[in-house]
Amino acid sequence: MGYSLNITQADAVLEKLRKDYRVFAPRRFPKQGRYSDTDIVRYAEVERFSDIVWDVKSDYPAKEVLTPIQQTIFYFTEDEYRASKVAAKPILLLARPCDINAQKIQARIYAGNGGYDDFYYTRMRELVTFALMECGGGDDTCFCVSMGTNRTDDYAIALRFSPEGVVVGVEDESFAPYFDGMPQEDYTPAFVEENELKVTPPDLSDIEVRKALKKHPMWKEFDSRCISCGSCTVACSTCTCFTTRDVIYGDNPEVGERRRVSASCQIEGFDQMAGQRELRSTPGDRMRFKVLHKFYDYKARFKESHMCVGCGRCTNRCPEFISISATVNKMNAAVEEIKADMARKGV
Ligand code: SF4
Ligand code: SF4
Fold first, then answer.
1. Rounded to the nearest 5°, which phi and psi values hold at 134?
2. Keyword Iron-sulfur: yes or no (predicted)?
3. pLDDT tens-digit profile of 18-62?
């Protein structure tokens, strides 16, 4: 069943939905962007149809609704603790196909990893129903088609926005009553079939190739280019690493709260161990780790997709203009060079 709503009708449906759901969508925050006089688009609860930013990709991913950059996980006193609480109201999360597919990956890490189920992720994920935002093709950093994340069927309703309003397809019949009396129109969501940008992750199944790639000079370039700020991982749709921090109330160090805070493998000291030892002490080492984690390790471990969904947000957010797609394509060229060299030497 499909419906075509003008802005007034869309506001009326949103008002009905908000009685049963907290509705989250990309929203514009004026003058809170990287530079003075620039905006930022990030996920937040919306109250009116005009709050929803649908015509540009959000700067930060939908994951922020499920795993905010910081959250209190428990409160403690001298000898007791209590888990934090979240609002029990269900969430309707408006998201593009890449963001919806990213949640499959996040769920694999948080809730399907060796039998361990992350309480804080799962309690949020169980509240979420997706509303698909039909994507018109993203921007020139997107490569969802290369990563196979351009399509999804994990949504209750689908939405095609325009300046005049929104066309809605209802997949989950429990949503039909919210549209009672609204003008009907047939609608099937379209998915992006081709991006301008194409990325080809290399075949790294040969351990000798992987060993040679680890020492390849391409990673040295990042020692001078990457400033280890971590912006790319904070903006990443699928990164899950976090650390914890205790916030102490007043003078008593035994009363306070523990927060979970996003962490980044790109920041110096991320992997520091006892004795100040670090496994990846240069920006180039850390870049190699991140790129291989996204484009080799995850798939090798879980035998499904790569960990990157091709949203391009890391490229958009990098202050040094380091492009993930250019880096992967460069890695692909390095692997071809390594394989040709091995063939020449008869290895
Ligand atoms: S690595 Fe970059 S392109 Fe891939 S999912 Fe993360 S932010 Fe998106
Ligand atoms: S790649 Fe860019 S965004 Fe990521 S840590 Fe390096 S400079 Fe920062």
1. -60, 135
2. yes
3. 999 999 999 999 999 988 899 999 999 999 999 999 999 999 999
Residue 49: name the closest of 1, 3, 9 by CA.
9
Q: Mean pLDDT throughout 67-94?
A: 96
Query: Cβ-count burial of 150 within 10 angstroms (0-12 exposed, 13-18 middle, 19+ buried)?
Result: buried
The closest ligand to the CA of 268 turns out to be 2
Three-state SS for 243?
strand
Give the residue, by CA position, lying nearest to ligand 2 atom 6.
226
Residue pair 124/70 in contact by the 8 Å Cβ criterion: no
pLDDT in tens, 274-324: 998 989 999 999 999 999 999 999 999 999 999 999 999 999 999 999 999
Mean pLDDT of the residues in the chain: 95
Q: Answer positive or negative: Cα dihedral of 278, 283, 285, 286.
A: positive
Name the token pair of 346: 């008869």
- Which residue's CA is minimally distant from atom 8 of ligand 1? 311
- Phi and psi at 110, nearest 5°, equal -80, -30
Residues 6+ apart with CB under 8 A from 277: none
Residue nearest to atom 2 of ligand 2 (CA): 318
**DSSP letter (8 states) at residue 183:** P
CA atoms of 132 and 51, how far apart (whole Å): 17
- 167 within ligand 1 shell (Cβ under 6 A): no
Which of 224, 229, 321, 325 gets mutated to test ligand 2 (max ligand atoms within 8 A of its CB)? 229
Separation in Å, CA 244 to CA 123, 216, 262? 19, 35, 8
How many Å is the Cα radius of gyration of the chain? Answer: 22
d(CA 158, CA 96): 10
What is the arrangement of strands in the sheet containing 256-262, beginning at the earlier edge strand? 81-83, 70-76, 256-262, 242-248
